[in-house]
TrEMBL record:
Protein name per Swiss-Prot or TrEMBL: Type I restriction modification DNA specificity domain-containing protein
Superkingdom as given in the UniProt entry: Bacteria
Keyword DNA-binding set for record: yes
Keywords attached to this entry: DNA-binding, Restriction system
All copies of domain Type I restriction modification DNA specificity, residue ranges: 18-205, 246-424
Single GO biological process annotation from the record: DNA restriction-modification system
Gene3D superfamilies named among the record's database cross-references: Bipartite methylase S protein, DNA methylase specificity domains
Membership in a protein family: Belongs to the type-I restriction system S methylase family.
Molecular-function annotations in GO: DNA binding
InterPro entries: Restrct_endonuc_typeI_TRD (IPR000055), Restrct_endonuc_typeI_TRD_sf (IPR044946), Type-I_RS_S_subunit (IPR052021)
Organism: Vibrio lentus
The keyword DNA-binding is annotated on this UniProt entry: yes
UniProt xrefs under Pfam families: Methylase_S (PF01420)
């Protein structure tokens, strides 16, 4: 590729023709989806009878793991003009604000494998014979396109909409068909790499979910009038090959001392400050089961703060979604200031306890139960007093650490794959900015 004035910064060497700016509506046609009646919806059906709704789309593809809706075969046969074709570009005409990519109005989806019938609030865009679909679509994944949608959208944060007339005023660049095809082929290979990494991440996530289900399905069963420990499906052995002892069922109140953090306001937290801190909103968006690095710091005096000693369990005590309140994080760092609206669980002195094991267990087995303890309408709250009566099985401390090590290895693989995926997406974004005028 070469760099030229008034041309894309990146270009294949064999092409020199000047690119031409045109309105999207001048080189494409479109078809709006149909408002099928909900009375016709079916819970099952063939691939080609699936109804594709706005809610079936992610930021960049048609979802495969959500609850699908299908149409009767005879209705699909009568609605052939609304069936998807390979190379179609779907565009949402309703949705959230453009910055919320997963549900944004105006987001474009390229169809590699066409299955299904188009519902209302979506349109199919198809280029004329002088242009390729992938080439045009790639120009709908740039910051400039998002800016255009931001300028034309109407409504509020929950329900924005755009008109076709405004959408098709967007200006794209065209070049010769051979150059378009070569660019499209190159970008398809980039997309294949991203798709493979995404698939790898999905498989690792599913593997982790299955492993945790097998690790944490132990129970106590009454036999001959006595409670007998029934071990989990997946269980480890000691280094010498011997069995670990039976697990003990312990109430939270027997294991933990309970406290809360202290207030750290938004303007009192910044990565530039000196004292590492964790604020409750960060538990939702920045941290998972284990906190090994902290992203924020505070400038408050130490006397105004509550600090970790490196073996705490943190649970948010408030949130809009009750399920969020049940998400636990093991804080494995000492001297970290803990913010308000966080329930802090610390082990009592005589307890053999691995915070990482407990965090994984809470997230897998107790999250839904904790969410049922939540009180409040628009904002749900769970207090330390609500948690005291909960219980969990405690293996021996050695087995806890074996479980921790095993799960963290999976986590490390997930983080590495996610990092590779994000780098590939960022690389693609950089390419798009340089390959199009």
């Amino acid at each position: 590729m070469t760099e030229q004035m008034n041309m894309p910064k990146l270009r294949f060497d064999e092409f020199e023709t000047r690119w031409n700016p045109v309105k999207l509506g001048d080189i494409t046609s479109y078809l709006k989806g149909f408002a099928f009646k909900s009375n016709d919806y079916l819970d099952s059906g063939g691939l080609d009878s699936r109804l594709i709704r706005v809610s079936d789309l992610s930021s960049d593809s048609v979802k495969v793991d959500n609850k699908k809706v299908f149409l009767p075969t005879e209705l699909v046969d009568r609605s052939i003009r609304y069936k998807l074709k390979n190379g179609d570009v779907l565009i949402t005409t309703v949705g959230s604000k453009p910055e919320l990519r997963e549900s944004a109005v105006g987001r474009a989806i390229y169809i590699n494998e066409a299955h299904g019938v188009l519902n209302q609030n979506l349109l199919i865009m198809r280029p004329n014979n002088e242009n390729t679909s992938k080439f045009i679509f790639s120009q709908l994944n740039t910051p400039r396109y998002i800016d255009h949608v931001t300028n034309i959208q109407r409504g509020n944060a929950n329900q924005s909409n755009i008109t076709v007339a405004d959408l098709f005023e967007y200006r794209v660049s065209t070049t010769t068909l051979p150059e378009q095809q070569k660019i499209a082929s190159f970008l398809s290979k980039v997309d294949e790499k991203i798709a493979l990494l995404s698939e790898k991440e999905d498989k690792l996530t599913e593997y982790k979910r299955g492993v945790m289900q097998q690790l944490f399905n132990s129970k106590w069963q009454e036999q001959d009038g006595q409670l007998t420990f029934m071990p989990p499906t997946l269980r480890f052995k000691a280094g010498d090959g011997s069995e670990f002892p039976d697990w003990e069922e312990r109430e939270f109140d027997d294991i933990f001392n309970f406290s809360t953090g202290k207030n750290i306001k938004q303007n009192e937290a910044s990565p530039e400050f000196d004292t590492p801190c964790v604020r409750y909103g960060e538990l939702y968006h920045m941290y998972g089961e284990v906190i090994t690095t902290v992203v924020n710091s505070t400038n408050l005096e130490h006397s105004e703060l509550t600090f970790s000693n490196g073996n705490e369990i943190l649970l948010p005590s408030a949130g809009e979604d009750p399920l969020d309140i049940g998400s636990a994080s093991a804080l494995t760092l000492s001297d970290v200031a803990i913010g308000r609206t966080i329930n802090v669980l610390r082990p009592k002195g005589s307890i053999d306890y691995c915070p990482v094991y407990v965090s994984f267990y809470i997230n897998e087995k107790l999250r839904k139960k904790i969410s049922t303890l939540a009180r409040g309408a628009s904002i749900s709250n769970v207090y330390n007093s609500d948690l005291r009566g909960l219980s969990l099985p405690l293996p021996s401390i050695k087995e806890q650490y074996v479980i921790k090590s095993f799960l963290l290895k999976i986590e490390d693989k997930l983080k590495l794959t996610n990092s590779e995926l994000e780098k590939a997406k960022e690389w693609k974004r950089g390419l798009l900015q340089q390959m199009f005028v």
